[in-house]
Design goal:
- The model is unreliable at about 1-50 (pLDDT under 50).
- This protein has about 300 residues and is mainly beta.
- It is built from 4 helices and 18 strands.
- The longest helix has 21 residues, at about 10-30.
């Protein structure tokens, strides 16, 4: 890819010594009154909340042409949030409905009207718009910030963005230099997990890798129908062999993300996710309970 020439750069190099000498002359002369506008000050090194989904370019949340909100990594870690649904439930306008199979998001009272992105790539199931990776299917270990735009954004992002857009922005090698590892254990449910992140930034090259794994029992409901089909074929088992007693079982989640870039001209990134969440469903009268399984590979 060819870059357009930047003719202002040679002139800037020539003007820099002149400005330096002029600054010395002003410092030794009488004081000069300069009128400044306090409302337009920008401090060097100031950390601004940046988002890129309001107008498809990086800008601060205050200048975005939309109702925008940025949740930084330090902010959601301070909250103790470990899933995307726990981050969004702290943001006004969102409601996270807990279902047997997972979380269903609502924005301004509308379900299935939010477009979820991972580094501006659509994130979700190709089979149903009601399945979103809002729980442990998406690890927050490699996440730098969460960008939120409330309101219609279908002009930029398509029909799925009727109520708003949520963009999950991952870390880069500039954010983590070296290796960072974390481990967790949680009760009840005997939850175990670990994450490993590696980052390297060297000149124009920038690389980042992240791997996360988690397992645990998320639904301890006892089911009384333990099987419908035979082990060797699809033949239904007899009614007396369907009854029993057990829990749905342990869930497991794997999440891998990698990114390699060279300046602004070349960026290669990819995400792999494999997960399985067993849960229990009951009949209307509550007499029969059986095991179901949810998988959202990506």
């Amino acid at each position: 890819m060819t870059r357009r020439p930047r003719p202002f750069l040679p002139f800037a190099l020539l003007l820099a010594p002149l400005l330096f000498l002029a600054g010395d002359g002003l410092a030794s002369g009488p004081p000069i009154s300069v009128k400044t506008d306090d409302t337009a000050l920008l401090f060097v090194g100031e950390k601004l909340d940046v988002l890129s989904i309001a107008s498809r370019r990086e800008e601060s949340a205050a200048q975005a042409p939309a109702v925008a909100r940025v949740v930084s990594r330090s902010e959601f870690r301070e909250w103790g949030s470990v899933t995307l649904s726990q981050v969004l439930e702290r943001v006004p306008g969102f409601y996270m409905a807990e279902k047997e199979f997972g979380t269903m998001p609502y924005l301004r009272g509308l379900p299935n009207a939010i477009l979820f992105l991972y580094d501006t790539v659509p994130l979700g199931s190709e089979l149903s718009k009601a399945l979103h990776p809002l729980d442990h299917e998406l690890s927050l270990a490699p996440v730098k910030r969460v960008e939120i735009v409330r309101g219609p954004a279908s002009v930029l992002w398509g029909p799925d963005a009727f109520a708003g857009v949520v963009n999950v922005v991952p870390l880069t090698g500039k954010d983590i230099q070296g290796v960072k590892a974390e481990a967790l254990y949680q009760e009840p449910g005997d939850h175990k997990g670990a994450s490993l992140s590696l980052g390297r930034h060297d000149g124009p090259w920038d690389g980042f890798l992240s791997f996360s794994a988690r397992t645990g029992e998320e639904d301890d409901t006892r089911v009384n129908i333990v099987r419908f089909w035979g082990d060797l074929d699809d033949t239904p088992v007899s009614p007396e062999d369907r009854r029993g007693g057990r829990t749905p079982g342990r869930a497991h989640y794997l999440d891998f993300y990698g990114r390699l870039s060279y300046g602004d001209d070349l960026v290669l990134s990819g995400r792999f996710s494999d997960n399985e969440k067993p849960y229990a469903l009951s009949s209307v009268d509550g007499k029969n309970t059986w095991r179901e399984n949810r998988k959202l590979p990506f």
